[in-house]
Amino acid sequence: MQIDLPVIWVAIIGLSVFLYVMLDGFDLGIGLLFPFFEDKADRQVMLNTIAPVWDGNETFLVLGGAGLYGAFPVVYSTLLPANYLPLILMVVGLIFRGAAFELRNRATRTQHAWDLAFIAGSALAGVCQGIVLGSLLQGIKIVDQRFAGDPFDWLSPFSLFCGIGVLFTYATLGCGWLILKTEGDLQKKMREVMRPLLAVLLGVIAVVSLWTVIGLPAVAHRWFGSGYLGWFLPVPVLVVACVWGIYRSLRLQHEALPFVLTLALCFLGYSGLLISIWPNIVPPSLSIWDASSSHSSQLFTLVGTVIVLPVILVYNAMQYRVFRGKVREGDAGYH
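The structure assignment produced for this chain is given below.
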């Protein structure tokens, strides 16, 4: 019996992308929250909460991209040409954010400029990731396994709205993380900021859901015409339950629960995306089997991934274990 390697690779890449969104999402969110906290001490504490882990979080972006190249090379010849500009701008944003992280603590007169670079880099990376997501969901024109659309097809109201939605998602994740990692006045401010952010995020989720159902017939058929609605219905129900749980945990001043439930909210949104496009890897017509590399290539790269992936997971888990606990003003900064 032959193993269905494309399905295994979709699971690996899907896990890598979700871990990236989950982990790098909250530290991008901290950059988005910077404009609301102008006090230098608050900003330093916010940065210190992610200083030991932020670069390790990006490992999963590299893993997902490398896995995609090895297992589904056709995706590179379709998805990348369709999104060259937002993908390049995303990388530029990540570079600016990384440079700002390294240099702001060593700067004196130019620290404010590096703060602006940190904010701009985080916002640019987040909105471009949302635009790519929106362009993928709305579909990419493919003929004979080649991109056949316009290089600016990604520039649509739907994809731009998805970009804004990702910004609110990351900002909400950042709030949850800082509630978990800080205390005192800063933690209190984060609870106050998270309430309106969560309300906007729920509205964004509702708009995107309705937009996809009304504007994308393939997605509407997947949800309502495939006979699996009973299996899919728990997703929106659990979204509402998570939002209610976050508001309740904020009111009761729980510390970990807002972040955990926001992560669950991201997982539900991610699962909704997978439901909407399965079994395509590039909607509307390129399935995971059509886009696959040869069986031998997928098997060869899988062997390496089976060795490397546990090491990456253990390394990242150890990061969070070693640097667990609260971060306070006056603690050693990032060096």
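Interim note for the steering committee: The CA atoms of residues 171 and 296 lie 42 Å apart. DSSP finds 15 helices and four strands in the chain.
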